[in-house]
Backbone:
């Protein structure tokens, strides 16, 4: 899942993007959270839901949360989500450590989760480029 800058995702003003359980409408995973922005008639969103759900089920402490982009326009705008599906990978603290638009491959999701878990263990560590 290629991300915007290879590091923790930051707003244009330089601050780290961090989401809470209240922001996403569900509890964060103990180790990481896969946040998927979807829309009703998005065909790739269905396949993305399946891949993210399967990966989350394989890894203890990982949650998958799907958000209806049309119902959460304020959050979509704040996070600059431009297309569905868009997937955000959050570490245990809710920091966005990866971001990708489009249907992800299972291997990319697993690699991104590895980066999120490493980030949570070593907060100052950079994430892997191009994972």
Residues:
């Amino acid at each position: 899942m290629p991300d915007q800058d290879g590091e923790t995702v930051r707003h244009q003003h330089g601050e780290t993007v961090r989401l809470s359980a209240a922001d996403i409408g569900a509890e964060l995973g103990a180790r990481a959270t896969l946040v998927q922005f979807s829309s009703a008639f998005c065909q790739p969103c269905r396949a993305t839901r399946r891949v993210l759900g399967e990966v989350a089920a394989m890894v203890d402490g990982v949650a998958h949360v799907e958000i209806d982009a049309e119902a959460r326009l304020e959050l979509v705008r704040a996070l600059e989500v431009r297309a569905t599906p868009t997937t955000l990978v959050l570490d245990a603290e809710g920091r966005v450590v990866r971001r990708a638009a489009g249907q992800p491959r299972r291997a990319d999701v697993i690699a991104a989760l590895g980066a999120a878990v490493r980030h949570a263990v070593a907060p100052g560590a950079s994430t892997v480029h191009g994972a």
In short: The mean pLDDT is 85.
